[in-house]
């Protein structure tokens, strides 16, 4: 019989995007001693991760802050691993120049109804809006074509690297929701995504797994060249310069620690979601302390 104790499995869910790849580079490529834990990575889009989190399938998972409002019974938010839009964020784009008033009555392609982008647009428009759910990496082509699988598409709510590439399709920016949010909220960043950890792991495992997540983020920032080389594998339509820029937008000091302003941004985002009627309950976020 082996004297080596079996390691505790930690299934990690994150998006197949340059920022998440950069964040998890050290864990995915065995750059860290993970001790008694074995990390297995599952790469799927954020809306799928949001939906899977309802069943608590993954011990550690990326979630939208919007989705977290429905998951607080199962998950707590890690203090590290955040994606914050600090003066930038999801965007609404159209084929022809348009205003916010113009798009209020149009069909908007969205990357999922549990994404933070979706809630941010609801707050920005001040009303519910007609939408069609489209995979995030197909929204720009859908807007350019004016339809998706036979459904009309007048505008698109774009996330991830689309924020840097929509101009390649000659699309026009209507609003940058990160800019809009900051103007409305004392310059706070727009809280988009976080890493959530399952509460039933217990206090010790939660603390140790979060520390390994922190160490992975820090390793990437300290070994940027190697982490960027890994991230480039997931940079759809991004060259090296754009990949570097995109990673810098979403893996930075906010990612190491929400900090008090980041925590306040999350609280305010969820509060406004409740006030507008998008969230039935007023959710007070629970953060895992970071030693």
Structure in words:
The protein is an alpha/beta fold and 291 residues long. It folds into 2 domains: 8-84 and 191-275, 3-Layer(aba) Sandwich (D-Maltodextrin-Binding Protein, domain 2); 91-184, D-Maltodextrin-Binding Protein, domain 2 (3-Layer(aba) Sandwich). The chain is built from 13 helices and 13 strands. The protein has helices at residues 18-28, 46-53, 65-68, 100-103, 116-125, 139-145, 162-165, 177-184, 203-222, 224-231, 240-250, 253-256, 259-275, and strands at 8-14, 37-43, 60-64, 75-77, 83-85, 91-94, 108-110, 131-133, 147-148, 151-152, 155-158, 172-176, 190-198. The strands form 3 sheets. Strands 1, 2, 3, 4, 5 and 13 form a 6-stranded mixed β-sheet that branches. β1 (8-14), α1 and β2 (37-43) form a beta-alpha-beta unit. α1 crosses α9 (203-222), α1 (18-28) packs across α11 and α9 (203-222) packs across α10. The radius of gyration is 19 Å and the shape is globular. It starts with 7 loop residues before the first strand and ends in a 16-residue tail after the last helix. The mean pLDDT is 95.
């Amino acid at each position: 019989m082996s004297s080596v104790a079996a390691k505790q499995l930690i299934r990690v869910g994150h998006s197949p995007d340059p920022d998440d790849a950069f964040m998890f580079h050290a864990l995915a490529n065995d750059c860290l001693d993970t001790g008694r834990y074995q990390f297995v990575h599952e790469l799927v889009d954020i809306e799928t991760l949001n939906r899977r989190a309802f069943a608590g399938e993954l011990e550690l998972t990326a979630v939208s802050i919007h989705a977290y409002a429905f998951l607080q019974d199962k998950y707590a938010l890690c203090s590290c691993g955040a994606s914050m839009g600090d003066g930038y964020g999801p965007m609404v784009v159209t084929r022809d120049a348009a205003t916010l008033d113009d798009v209020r009555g149009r069909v908007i392609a969205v990357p999922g109804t549990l994404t933070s982008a979706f809630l941010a647009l609801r707050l920005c428009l001040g009303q519910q809006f007609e939408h069609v759910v489209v995979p995030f990496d197909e929204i720009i082509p859908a807007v350019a074509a004016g339809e998706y699988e036979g459904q009309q598409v007048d505008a698109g709510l774009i996330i991830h690297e689309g924020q840097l590439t929509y101009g390649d399709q000659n699309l026009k920016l209507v609003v940058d929701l990160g800019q809009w949010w900051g103007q409305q909220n004392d310059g706070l960043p727009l809280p988009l995504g976080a890493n959530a950890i399952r509460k039933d792991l217990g206090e010790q495992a939660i603390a140790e797994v979060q520390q390994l997540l922190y160490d992975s983020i820090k390793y990437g920032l300290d070994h940027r060249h190697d982490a960027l080389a890994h991230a480039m594998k997931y940079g759809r339509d991004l060259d090296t310069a754009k990949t570097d820029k995109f990673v810098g937008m979403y893996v930075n000091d906010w990612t190491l620690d929400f900090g008090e302003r980041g925590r306040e941004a999350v609280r305010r985002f969820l509060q406004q979601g409740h006030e507008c009627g998008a969230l039935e309950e007023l959710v007070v976020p629970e953060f895992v302390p970071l030693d």
